[in-house]
Design goal:
19% of the residues lie in helices and 29% in strands. By secondary structure, it is of the alpha/beta class. The chain has two domains: 30 residues; 221 residues, no CATH class. Strands 1, 2, 3, 4, 5, 6, 10, 11, 12 and 13 form a ten-stranded mixed sheet that branches. A hairpin with a 6-residue loop joins strand 1 and strand 2. It is globular and about 50 Å long.
Length: 259
Amino acid sequence: MKKNHVLFIGLAFIIILGILTIYSINTVIPDNPLEGTEQIVLVVSKTETSSNAMLYTFSRDSDKWRFHFSCPVVIGKNGMAWGIGLHNDKVRMDDEPVKMEGDSKSPKGAFELLQAFGYLPPTMVRIKFPYTQVTSDMICIDDVRSEYYNMVVKTAEKGLDTEVLPSHEDMLRNDNQYKYTVFVGHNAISPVKDEGSCIFLHVWKDPGSYTAGCTAMSEENILKLLGWLDPDKYPCLVQLSRKSYHRLKEEWGLPEVKI
């Protein structure tokens, strides 16, 4: 009886140890941030500090990516830095920068696409993606001292004094750069102060311009993108430098692009 009891305990210990080992291995490997998405907007720059890049769109069917269209884009004046999104923080290399407020860098990583905004009424913008017409009192707050940091709000609804507004971006501008925008889910859930805000896909000033951290393209191409996005396919934005793309391509199951 005593031998059998010892043998049973020994076998149980081995089984438990094996389970713990498997669990440990599984938790060390970061989750694929693209799991569940059927549409990907992939933006790849040549270097970490490039202010221009290429945008590629793919849809997934039976675990295979199908290419739709591509176009040139401009990004942050100082390139990219790792943002807060769907990806695990462990994918960042020690020598790679983190996105901060005012750094003029576009967020790097994988992000949800949350909401479209624009100047025109919804009846004139026939898309599947959630769309809101902006008004003159609609702002995106980039002030780290504000409780509405990294949120698009209406000043009247939040009781904000228009004479002493926090630092912000007007959603209704006097140019066409925000005529069509898509709000990117960088630092969107419980926003971390000073780690970046108000990131959009929007219309560029011109092909030779750069942004303060957004990703911009021609009006023709953003309209094409808006018409393609399908909320039922859980579209995600992935922004990487060429070096990071090659490093994470297999791990994230990214589609093949020639850079």
